[in-house]
Design brief:
The structure holds 2 protein chains of 2 kinds. By secondary structure, chain A is an alpha+beta fold. Helices cover 31% and strands 19% of the residues of chain A. In chain A, α20 packs antiparallel against α21. Chain A is globular, with a radius of gyration of 30 Å. In chain B, 72% of the residues lie in helices and 0% in strands. The longest helix of chain B is centred in the middle third of the chain and has 36 residues. The chains are: A alpha+beta, B mainly alpha.
Chain lengths: 698, 326
């Protein structure tokens, strides 16, 4: 009982609630609480590309441009740049170049960092060894200049970094490919390579706050890349600081300790448990947007229009690897926002008769808000164009693909396996992106027909007819009489796969085609795609930027995965499509570009290199005390816009988490009662004069 | 005894080489260096050149176990991924993980949360199980013993995952007594460790108590117990002074072998309770195909296991004077 008292006292020391996972010193503070499921691999802007890394990098690094927080479709606006740069087309020796002059705002300062103190650039190893954090050293800052942006672009070609966009940028930025060779020759193991000593032809300084980037040919999508951390500034001092002896052994690297000019800086970095972003004291401040899309004002998203951001002092990210603790802590008020896992979907969401998603009464009672948005992502059932049965340009194969496209009911798939969280795709371009069409013009007439104001999947008889025309009446080869067997390559994810596989079998059975799944691990699956040895496969793509080019290139012949190791996993080739793509990619948005996209969609629907797919719909839940929250699927730089009502949060946490002690007391009472027969039995035994033979152990 | 320990340590060298080779083969049967590179470089826009560059930088461009292109026999065996990656392990130089973090420093950092969870589970679990088993043995052939065994079998039959999820649901979600998951350092860690420790102890009661009960009953049938009873000692004295002392020999030696392994943490509990220990480190490494970390953790596990076995042998001589290590 004494032990119980000690435990109760220790737990009681945490305040009125016992299950609060945060220290008492944070009570009532202006802090946002969120999660990260996987430890980020890279926080260096030259290397970081994954969405979970963007949770941190987008708050710290400031590329020249950003996306408007509220407006949809997504709109580029300046961040550190003075305006959106417009390219000048220059002809030189018969070659066209695009020249971008990027002017940045003066007076922007970097976050406090030890690299800006000259004495810290020559540390002795013993000092480094004793450091717990790089921020234990004296900190300094300096003004952001054009040189910092130039330095970062040079880093994309650094031989010791693996920038995922180096290959792409080397095709456009003049001299970048050759620059990589120069750096390769200049780099010495263990030594810091000062990129300032090596000039890059296509990137130059115009003045202290202006730099120039020269691209080969027109590349209108370049401005979208200017909104990504790949093009954020990097001070050379930071790179030099982290290259000192002993830094890597302490895990003090640029990949783990980012340096930026953004509203927040990484103040605590324990990727195993907790990462903390604290307000950058040198941040210049930025006004909250005063415009949004219709409905934003009604949702209170314009209430802070014009106010200086950021609103938060700190954001604490806790690592949660498992979905159950994450969801329960959100319900207890310990996380301010959350997604919805399939396990908790029914608890959180109610789907109305007309298919609209709304909150469950339990969530409504807690004041939780729901925001849904269709992601600029596509998951599709791809066909390997190199496969002799389903691939290729023949009329037979085309009709076979069209028949399957009708039979595979993606609406049903979404309803069964995704709780209705998604919309079937009728073209590669996702909703919200230029080129996407709604209604009749946006419908795939091969697989659907328009009835009663909605697209309905064509009857299965239409699929059977196409199958017979393809030479497979009743699912059998008309020439040999052999049944048609199709193979779906997929990754194995566990026991839940059986239901999905059974569903796929049912889809093919509708047209009497035999179906064989070929499940494998992720590595082998990717290898098969690279070698072009699949038949049917399911993959997905999330857009880098909101432009149709970033979807249509997935079907561009020269991007074939098997032939050129590109992103065209289906290895689809259609000369007309490729010509149209080349024209469309460099055009500004407008009626002409829309007309070309429409034609490309027609070709896509007829050829059916993808047998349908869907665009996922993401659901986000926000606690009542979280303000200005809106999902932005393209750019996750939301932290500076968010605000919390800490007092309301504390009150609700107390209300939701009152400790229930009585079951513990009952438990101890029961234990105490259960001891009684044991004590009685013990006493009886002790009083026994002689032991009966029957009770001897055997 | 010193000669014995030295001999055992020398035996450990071929064992460790074998374990290392087996880990290497199992890992590379499933993952190729190309797979590792692609996993680290991400899913988008990965060029074959980037993959080759990644491999070359980390020495994964060498042949796996035999370099037929090399000139000398030494180089044929030495200039391979296996030799290059394994040799340094024997001087406990673990190198860097594939995301370029120092493995030794990670292990030093993450060892403490693992110990903070594993040591209380071990000690409290041992005390609880011995007490429970002793009670069952004391009340042998009564309803208390019968229901105790039934309870043990029932508890053995339930998966650890059920205990974890059930414990989180009841103690954290319904009764709001402790945080569901998380970790803090210092005294604040107590709040986060109460539930995983309690669950760790409860989930181990069934199997351990049954085994210990068997050991106690076996001891109770021995001649010296009969002699003790014959000379008029009370049952309590017989149990606690004689039976417990002698039955503790197999219990303690069984426990000593796991002591070094406590450093490696618990794979499941650490993941579910958000404890940043070595168990979750190993799981993460397996999931992200980080061979450097997997290799280091398996090697460390083997070393600890060998140390555990040597300690067990030594502990025999301490608890049983009849045993001498030659």
């Amino acid at each position: 009982m004494r032990a119980l008292l000690v435990i109760v006292l220790l737990l009681g020391g945490c305040g009125e609630v016992w299950n609060d996972p945060y220290p008492a010193s944070e009570l009532g503070k202006n802090i946002l609480y969120s999660v990260f499921p996987d430890r980020p691999k890279h926080l260096d802007p030259a290397q970081s590309y994954a969405s979970d890394e963007a949770t941190f990098t987008r708050q710290i690094y400031e590329p020249p441009l950003q996306y408007h927080y509220l407006k949809r479709p997504y709109e580029l606006i300046p961040l550190t740049a003075v305006e959106i740069p417009r390219p000048r087309l220059v002809e030189k020796n018969g070659v066209t170049y695009s020249v971008y002059d990027i002017r940045i705002k003066p007076g922007i300062k970097f976050q406090p960092h030890p690299g800006f103190v000259p004495a810290n650039l020559g540390l002795n190893p013993q000092t480094t060894k004793n450091l717990k954090s790089p921020y234990d050293l004296p900190l300094g800052t300096r003004e952001l200049t054009a040189d910092d942006y130039i330095y970062q672009i040079k880093r994309l070609a650094h031989p010791q970094l693996h920038s995922p966009i180096f290959g792409l940028m080397a095709e456009y930025i003049v001299g970048l490919k050759e620059y990589a060779e120069v750096l390769k020759a200049a780099v010495k193991p263990g030594e810091w390579l000062d990129l300032r000593a090596h000039a890059l032809e296509g990137v130059s300084r115009v003045d202290q706050h202006t730099y120039r980037v020269t691209l080969k040919g027109p590349y209108p999508q370049f401005v979208y890349w200017l909104a990504m951390p790949f093009f954020a500034p990097m001070p050379w001092e930071a790179e030099k600081f982290f290259h000192q002896p002993g830094m890597a052994e302490k895990n003090f690297t640029l990949d783990w300790w980012p340096v930026g000019t953004g509203a927040f800086m990484l103040s605590e970095n324990d990727p195993n448990a907790r990462m903390v972003l604290a307000r950058n004291p040198h941040f210049r401040g930025e006004p909250y947007p005063s415009e949004g899309e219709p409905g934003d004002a009604a949702r209170g998203l314009l209430a802070d229009a014009g106010k200086t951001m950021p609103f938060l002092d700190k954001a604490v990210y806790t690592r949660e690897k498992e979905a159950i603790p994450l969801w329960n802590k959100f319900l207890q008020g310990y996380y301010d926002l959350s997604g919805i896992g399939s396990d908790s979907f029914d608890q959180a969401v109610r789907i109305s008769m007309d298919g609209e998603a709304g909150l469950s009464p339990e969530m409504e009672a807690r004041g939780i808000r729901l925001d849904t948005t269709i992601a600029p992502t596509i998951f599709y059932l791809g066909v390997n164009w190199l496969d002799p049965v389903v691939g290729g340009n023949s009329e037979r194969a085309r009709k076979l693909r069209q028949a399957i496209a009708i039979a595979v009911d993606w609406e049903e798939y979404l309803s069964i396996f995704a709780n209705g969280r998604g919309v079937p795709s009728h073209s590669p371009v996702a909703p919200g992106i230029f080129g996407y069409r709604d209604g009749v013009p946006g419908m795939n007439p091969v697989t659907h027909e328009w009835k009663e104001g909605k697209a309905h999947r064509r009857p299965i008889e239409a699929a059977k007819k196409l199958l017979a025309e393809a030479g497979y009446p009743d699912g059998r080869d008309a020439k040999t009489g052999q049944p048609l067997v199709l193979y779906l390559d997929t990754t194995s994810r566990g026991p839940g796969d059986k239901a999905v596989i059974d569903w796929w079998r049912k889809q093919f059975a509708k047209i009497s085609v035999q179906f064989e799944p070929r499940q494998t691990d992720w590595n082998r699956f990717q290898e098969k795609l690279r070698k072009g040895s699949t038949q049917l496969f399911i993959v997905g793509w999330s857009a880098d930027y909101p432009d149709p080019e970033n979807f249509m290139f997935l079907l561009h012949g020269p991007q074939s995965r098997a032939r050129h190791q590109g992103e065209n996993a289906a290895n689809y080739v259609n000369p007309e499509f490729d010509v149209l793509f080349e024209r469309m990619r460099n055009m500004p948005n407008g009626p002409e570009r829309q007309r070309i996209i429409d034609r490309m969609n027609e070709i896509f629907r007829r050829d059916a290199p993808w047998i349908g797919g869907f665009h996922p719909k993401n659901f986000a839940l926000f606690q009542s005390w979280l303000g200005n929250a809106k999902v932005n699927e393209i750019s996750d730089n939301k932290l500076k816009y968010l605000k919390v009502d800490a007092a309301s949060r504390e009150a609700l946490r107390r209300q939701w988490n009152r400790p229930v002690v009585w079951p513990l007391l009952i438990l101890f009472l029961l234990l105490a009662i259960s001891v009684i027969p044991a004590v009685r039995s013990y006493r009886r035994r002790e009083r026994m004069a002689a032991r009966p033979a029957s009770s001897q152990p055997t | 005894m010193l000669a014995y320990i030295v001999r055992r340590l020398l035996y450990a060298i071929p064992i460790l080489i074998g374990v290392n080779l087996l880990t290497f083969l199992l890992f590379f049967v499933v993952n190729t260096p190309d797979d590792m590179a692609r996993m680290q470089l991400g899913a988008k826009r990965v060029t074959p050149e980037a993959v080759e560059k990644w491999k070359a930088e980390r020495g994964y461009d060498l042949p796996l176990v035999w370099n037929s292109a090399a000139a000398s026999l030494f180089d044929k065996a030495g200039k391979t991924i296996f030799a290059q990656k394994s040799a340094k392990l024997f001087v406990f130089e673990f190198g860097y993980s594939e995301d370029k973090r120092d493995i030794a420093s990670e292990i030093r950092e993450r060892m403490w949360p693992s110990l903070a969870l594993a040591v209380p589970v071990f000690l409290v679990g041992l005390a609880v199980c011995v007490t429970f088993a002793l009670l069952m043995a004391f009340f042998r052939a009564t309803y208390l013993d019968l229901w105790g065994v039934v309870l043990c079998v029932a508890m053995m039959s339930v998966s650890t995952l059920f205990y974890i999820i059930g414990g989180q649901y009841i103690a954290s979600k319904t009764w709001h007594l402790v945080p569901i998951s998380g970790y803090a350092t210092g005294f604040d860690a107590f709040r986060f460790l109460v539930l995983p420790v309690v669950i760790g102890v409860i989930s181990g009661i069934g199997a351990s108590s049954r085994w210990y009960r068997t050991l106690f009953l076996e001891e109770m049938g021995r001649d010296y117990v009969r002699t003790a009873r014959a000379k008029g000692l009370s049952e309590t004295v017989v149990m606690f002074r004689h039976v417990l002392k002698n039955a503790m020999i197999p219990i303690l030696t069984g426990a000593v072998v796991v002591i070094p392994l406590l450093f490696l943490g618990s794979l499941l509990s650490e993941s579910f309770f958000g404890i940043p220990g070595l168990g979750s480190y190993t799981i993460d490494a397996i999931q992200s195909q980080d061979y450097a970390v997997v290799r280091a953790m398996v090697f460390l596990g083997s070393v600890f296991y060998i140390i555990g076995l040597i300690l067990t042998d030594i502990s025999y001589t301490l608890v049983d004077p009849r045993i001498r290590l030659e």
